Amino acid sequence: MSSMLVEASVDFSGRSILIIEDEALIAMEMQEAVEAAGGTVLGPVPSVQEAMALISAGRAIDAAILDIRLTDGISIAVAQRLKSSGVPLIFVTGYDGWHMPDDLEDVPVYQKPNDPENVVRVLFDTWRRVRT
């Protein structure tokens, strides 16, 4: 992975990024890309239940990367909870058979397979737009 590219264009220093992904290799690659951009990773967590528990624990979440289809269901309720709290997020999925609820239509969707560095750049752009 070319972390120099991520470091040069994205700075998540001091920011906590939640990763919700049930595929271990993809979660690890996302974690490496977030850390290369200076971010601290919360998770990764592989399920809706674990994501909701982490959110309920009250830890600060600055942005989130969510797979749509997880080990115990679809992450739409997690996304809605994060978005209603003002947390910028993006979806990363290989799943085509889903319908996005109206309140999440503005959330970027990145199709798998993907480049984790690009995902982090898209998340950073989304985070920057929400924060300005």
From TrEMBL:
Q: Keywords of this protein's UniProt record, alphabetized? A: Phosphoprotein
Record PTM 4-aspartylphosphate, positions in chain: D67
Note the coiled coil stretches, chain numbering. Answer: none
- PROSITE patterns xrefs: RESPONSE_REGULATORY
For biological process, the GO terms are: phosphorelay signal transduction system
Presence of the UniProt keyword Phosphoprotein in the record: yes
Q: Is Ubl conjugation one of the keywords UniProt gives this record?
A: no
SUPFAM superfamilies recorded for this chain?
CheY-like
Q: Which InterPro entries match?
A: CheY-like_superfamily, Sig_transdc_resp-reg_receiver
Response regulatory domain: which residues?
Answer: 16-127
Source taxon at top rank: Bacteria
Gene3D superfamilies to which the protein is assigned, alphabetical: 3.40.50.2300
Name of the protein described by the UniProt record:
Response regulator
Organism the protein comes from: Aurantimonas aggregata
